[in-house]
Amino acid sequence: MGCSGLLILGFVLNVAHCLDILGLSEEPVLEITHNITAVLGEDVYLRCIYLGESKIESAEWKRKINSKMKTKRLAGFTDGKPFSRENISSPVSLTNLTVKMKVHSVEAEGEYLCEFESEAESDSGSVFLTVIARPDIQILVNAETINGSDYQAVSCSAVGGRPVPQITWLVDGRSPSDYPFTVSVSETVHSNGTSTLSSILRFPTHLQDEDSVTCVVQHPTLPNPKLTRVRVETYTRPNVTIKAEMVQQGGSEFWVVSCISSGGRPDADIALALNTDEELQRENNTDSDTQTNSVLLPVTVYEGRNVTCVFDHPTFTHKVSRVITLPSFYLSGVQLLLSGLGSNRDDLQGTESLELQDGQSDTVINLQVTGNVPHYNVTCKKDGGPLPEGVELVGSNLTVHGPVNHQHAGLYEFLFSYRHLKATLKFNVTVTQPVPPTIHVDFHTKDGHKVIECSAADAVPAANMSWLLPEGVSEVSWFNFTSHNGSHSVRGVLLLPACSPWELTAECVINHPAFEKPENRSITLPLCARPNITINSSFEWKDGDKFTKVDCSVDSVAPAATITWHVGNSDNSISYLSETEVQADGLVSARSSAHFVSSLYSGQNLTCTVEHPSLEAPEKRTIHILVQKAPLMSVSVVRQQDSPLWLAVCDCRGEDVETNLAWVLPENVKGQTSLHLKNEGRVRKARLTYLFPLALHEGQDLTCAYHFEHGATEKKTIHIPRYYISSVRVLNHTTPLQSRYGDEAITHRLALQEDHHSQRVLLRVEGNVPEYNLNCKRSDGSFVQMDGTAMVFQSELTEQDEGLYSCQASFYHHTATVNIQVEVTSEDKLFALVVMICMSSALAIIPIFLVILWVYCKGNSKNKYKKKDSLSALTSLMQEPGSPEVKKPAVTENNSKDYAQLVSYSIVIDVKTTV
């Protein structure tokens, strides 16, 4: 009892120690944050709260000064009064020592102690403060020249950071590759515990296409990486051109040839190649992103010469040249053009006489100079004197203000000159009286068009003609001018569509100086007859598919109608064939046929759209494509009552169902089939049946096929299950009896009680059959009464009921049998059997017990013949139990070993046999 108490006490103490280690023995006394990170220059809170129930007398914060456990008092309560030092605020209360501290330097990093004193105990905790410093990001871009090449050096510095920041670079959102970028990093440690990390990204300017780079700084004080983007210089390929402009200085003309470079960075090098040693006036100008290098060249000296500008830039693989050829001036002649009301003469070059009509107004004579001179001087004369009043030369136009009269008649002379180049024009102006034209209008039909002709003949001067048509009517027209004996004729031809849905009125408008106002001649064209549109459809079967052909015919006057096809309400078109035929009466017949598989557009509307000039809007004809309904088919299988055959039924229902139903059966299989037809209005029903034994198609598919006239086939299939009866099981407790012949079935031995009523033998059929017949009979062939799946013995059993019973379950050709050996027992027989079993078991155990006891006792003896006696004693077990008088053989040294093995083997066999 004492030992038990000590064990229990030790267990309790061990559990208490473990709970104390895990912190589970009691609730924490202090609420404190052990590790705090502060940012240099910012405030930090040291938090320590007492949660216990003792009365606190004093509390304070201390700081460890060095590793020798020296401390320095910072803030707290003494005698109930708060105190604080340096940059620390006063605590909240005696049990809440939370204070705010300003972190001025890195030296604030270290361990701080929180202590609470009471009468009973002292509680303390520690806080380790880590000081970090937020770096200041500085970035600078410098241009460098290394080995004659321009470089960009971008410096990014994280100043005053703690711990050391990380600096990376991004160019176009990606980390720069090794070439052409180089990165150098340096670190400087400051006396205040912080450090500065500098990273310099260097690259050749001409190999960098991006105009900015980004410095990425990562540091614990930054919630996200700090991205600083800075613009850098890049090279840009310039656009280079050359141009020449003429200027006048001091009464002389000069070419200003300019070499221009725009949009480039850096500036391009520009040189002018002139192949001359004379000193020329040059000018260089740079305006924003455009460079201009100009030279002043005398026009007379450099006429027809080439000037070359040579441009060089770092982005060029080689120097680029631009060449301009200064023009050579010429003045070859003057053309005379007459414009204004009352004249339709276009080109009068080389004419010696110009005819103007008396009273003609707003007359303008255009003098076109042939040449490339920049300007020219003009000298004008009439009959050797000045121009008459009201006639002046404005630019290159000789204008007659007011109506023409006889004073404007005479010889006009014009001299055009530019330096040494000259051209002369002379023409004689005559003024005549106007003669009105003879007007005639006619029309006829030709090549599918209405041709309207309007003529104004024998007029002086020529009449001016135009056409006036209704809005929206397109036309083709032209005019012919002829002259004979000083009179002029104009013929206008107008082409209009031969067919129109409206009446069209066309007007011919004639203007002439002899008319006070324009003369109009009109002609009205009648509307066209409407076309005759017909549509029809037909069907045909081809290669097992039903095709629909729809024809749309249009008989109309010329031109032929345009026919298109559309399906449904959408604009989806289908392919079609069209042909046109001109009939004897002049009418045009247009036909279009659409040919398609009927199933593609079953149940939809097919529209023929006709467009013709006689129609105000396209006309449509629609035909509905009927839905081709397939016959409804179904198949089923039923079991026949009082018949070993099964019946397969195939039903087909539709509008055009014929007798071409058939069962698809394997080869060499002939079944009994029959077909029945029935009409219900427009619907026809067909039923095809097939009688077959289950064993013939068990586990197979039976297919019924309907053959259409065009060769297609509709099929329906039903599966015939595969049934089985694996066994008949006896649910009562039985003992299996195996026959000595391996092929015979196992017999189940079943014991029933004598003198008992309504005893049952419960059976269960294993398999997937939907139903079965179960019969049991005795060995003499008589049947036993069955109640469902149970064999029933209604009366009291006697020894005459013993014997072999056979039970068979059957479903068509599937059978399974079980054999049952029924034995009838009583309570007296059962008691006798138990007594015999117990006595035999006791007789088997007693000898074993005696042997073990004898060996145990004999083991204490020190007789030298111990081994031999033991062997001889055990040897007696080899004798027959019923023959105790048989003597054991003598054991010698030679055979003692073999004999011992034999004895041991006999014991094992005897023990196993007994068991």
From TrEMBL:
Coiled coil: none annotated. One of its GO terms (biological process) is homophilic cell adhesion via plasma membrane adhesion molecules. Its main location: membrane. Residues 1-18 form the signal peptide. It is a single-pass membrane protein. PROSITE patterns: IG_LIKE. InterPro entries: CD80_C2-set, Ig-like_dom, Ig-like_dom_sf, Ig-like_fold, Ig_sub, Nectin/Nectin-like. The chain crosses the membrane at residues 830-857. It is found in: Membrane. GO terms for cellular component: adherens junction; membrane. Residues 28-130, 135-228, 531-624 form the Ig-like domain. Gene3D superfamilies: Immunoglobulins. It holds the Pfam family C2-set_2. Keywords: Cell adhesion, Disulfide bond, Glycoprotein, Membrane, Repeat, Signal, Transmembrane, Transmembrane helix. Belongs to the nectin family. This is Uncharacterized protein LOC115017900. It comes from Cottoperca gobio (Frogmouth). The gene is LOC115017900.
